[in-house]
Write a structure and sequence with these properties.
Blueprint lengths: L1 E2 L7 E2 L4 E3 L3 E3 L3 E3 L3 E3 L3 E3 L3 E3 L3 E3 L3 E3 L3 E3 L3 E3 L2 E4 L3 E3 L3 E3 L2 E4 L2 E4 L3 E3 L2 E4 L2 E4 L3 E3 L3 E3 L2 E4 L3 E3 L3 E3 L2 E4 L3 E3 L3 E3 L2 E4 L3 E3 L3 E3 L3 E3 L3 E3 L3 E3 L3 E3 L3 E3 L2 E3 L3 E3 L7 E3 L3 E4 L2 E4 H10 L17 H5 L4
Parallel strand pairs: 1-5, 3-6, 4-7, 5-8, 6-9, 7-10, 8-11, 9-12, 10-13, 11-14, 12-15, 13-16, 14-17, 15-18, 16-19, 17-20, 18-21, 19-22, 20-23, 21-24, 22-25, 23-26, 24-27, 25-28, 26-29, 27-30, 28-31, 29-32, 30-33, 31-34, 32-35, 33-36
Antiparallel strand pairs: 2-3, 36-37, 38-39, 39-40, 40-41
Amino acid sequence: MLIDKDFAGLKFNGYSYEFEGNIESAGSIEITVPLMVSGWIEAGGWITAGESIDAGESIEAGESIKAGGWIKAGEWIKAGEWIKAGGWITAGEWIKAGESIEAGGWIKAGEWIKAGWSIEAGGSITAGGWITAGRWITAGESINAGGWITAGESIEAGESIEAGESIKAGESIEAGGSIAAGGSIAAGGWIKAGEWIKAGEWIKAGGWIKAGESIKMYGIETKHLYIFHGTFAFTVWVMDTHIKVGCQLKSKAEWKTWLDNADKDKAAQLGDDGSMWTIREVLARFL
């Protein structure tokens, strides 16, 4: 189906062409004019537009959706494969693509955003609920979700990353600014922030954690965080003023008192490889 300025029912409002009702095709739809539809746009194949697409309700394609300008829907946007816009992409409810979602500007949804492969924006990525991608999420500016943010591989933002709940990536999390979560922050590899890192609960990384300014978790703010695994059964978290061994979080002064009073022979063993490291010997490294 071709929609140009001569398409039946179109009205020019001075800057775009308006259509009252819905546009549907079992095949594909090619749009050569900036288009505003009061209802929905639906195609069994692909939808492509040289300029912008605006639907009062939804935009859906069995294959892909592509626009040289922006893509906007009052409710949701869905593509079996990918969604791509030279400008921004926004939906009142949700955005979903079987493979990727890409925008030269920002990507925004009132509820959630999901892509089987990747989500990339030259600007910011924002959702009232959650944001998830099978592999990576990348934003030139910020990534912000009222719920959680998760990616199979990496999450990266030129500015900040913020989630009301948790942030989780299979490999890395990196932000030019800050990283903050109401719950936990976890990465299989490393976590890096140009400014600060803050979590309402815990921070976990298979590799290293680095912040240009400060790191805060469990209500404790620190400039340095060292995570020690080694051959121990429990992870040791070393902060400026506190140390956490396993699930026990104490100030350095409290651990010093514990060391002074503890019987080395009765201290819990942390190693299971015959090294016989005790809590006393582990803490002695950091106090």
